[in-house]
Write a structure and sequence with these properties.
CATH topology: Nuclear Transport Factor 2, Chain: A
CATH class: Alpha Beta
Strand content: 35-45%
Number of helices: 6
Mean pLDDT: 96
Helix content: 25-40%
Number of domains: 1
Shape: globular
CATH architecture: Roll
Length: about 200
């Protein structure tokens, strides 16, 4: 590995971690500064540009709710002025559902694209691979009650993500990459590698 590639990997990992930290801390200007003007974000509740993602993230903040991400260090691959990264992540939130205080965990892998812009790296894309998730009451004696038919209609890899967002009035599509549909996982990984190879 050349020394410049090592530095590039560090810079890409840094911009990824800065973006998530800024989002968790509701530092919207700092979050926006991490995105390339032509960036694309596709996650459970949003599809659009990086700038729009920041704006909608800001609007989605609800008083009294707590949301944050637990991430492992990004694994980065660089080719010329492009880079991709896959990062295991746990989505955590605490909120109210039908009068019950709930704890939510979503286990995902975040797929990032980064592009060199002058002397800096910026995020060019963010996609998510859904694995499993769960919801339970923070108080063991008070658990949320779900409609079984409604739960059964949701995909297994992001069933409780769908239920949690439905509680907030947000509908989730049925076509997100998840481990319950291996062909979609293969398509996601192939698409990231193809984008990198086009550098």
């Amino acid at each position: 590995m050349h020394e410049q590639e090592r530095f590039d990997r560090i810079d890409v990992a840094d911009i990824i971690l800065r973006e998530r930290l800024a989002r968790d801390n509701r530092q919207w200007d700092e979050m926006a500064a991490c995105y390339h003007p032509d960036s694309v974000v596709e996650v459970s509740w949003f599809r659009g540009s990086g700038a729009e993602f920041v704006a909608q993230s800001r609007k989605a903040v609800r008083e009294g709710s707590v949301n944050f991400h637990i991430m492992t260090p990004p694994v980065v691959n660089v080719r010329k002025d492009r880079a991709i990264s896959e990062t295991p992540c746990i989505l955590r939130s605490f909120s109210m559902m039908n009068g019950v205080e709930i704890s939510f965990e979503g286990f995902v892998r975040l797929f990032w694209r980064a592009q060199r812009d002058g002397d800096r790296w910026l995020i060019a894309g963010l996609r998510c691979l859904y694995m499993k998730d769960e919801i339970h009451g923070r108080n063991p004696n008070r658990q949320p009650v779900f409609d079984e038919a409604q739960l059964a209609a949701y995909r297994d890899s992001y069933r409780y993500t769908s239920a949690n967002l439905a509680n907030l009035g947000i509908a989730v599509t049925d076509d997100l990459p998840g481990i319950d549909r291996p062909e979609m996982v293969s398509q996601l990984r192939a698409g990231e590698l193809e984008w990198l190879a086009a550098a």
